[in-house]
Amino acid sequence: MRKIKKVIFPTHSDERGNLVVVEGGKDIPFPIARLFYIYGGGAEVRGCHANRESEFVLVNVHGSCKLRVHDGKQEHEFMLNTPSEGIYLPKMIWKEMYDFSDDAVLLCIASTPYLSEEYIRDKEAFLKEMRNYE
Ligand code: TYD
Question: In ligand 1, which atom is closest to the CA atom of 108?
């Protein structure tokens, strides 16, 4: 199984500000099939699912939020508040996003088109399946 990891994007900064570059297959470890972004929430917890097929890189491009993930063995938590950094999530990772600041914009970069059938939405079922997964 591929590992959850932080990815750092090249940033070009000068007196005009910062420009962050994200190239599919280079700065993130898959060709990009889809982007979506989440904003305008608050205290809600989002995600609460795992994906059988999709890999993701999550980047909080404005404000902040937290990410809690479970790989079947361990839980990890990340604070996302840096536009030039993302968290790579391989397939079969349980994910929850929460504590969104009012101004948070969470960019999600995915390796596949949207397919609702590839989602696992029951955490107990996910953990049970992961006991035999490699
Ligand atoms: P949902 O999976 O509940 O979002 P989150 O992971 O943040 O909890 O998706 C919300 C709605 O958006 C749901 O009706 C499915 C739809 N959707 C798409 O149509 N395409 C997509 O790429 C995504 C991620 C969601």
Answer: 24
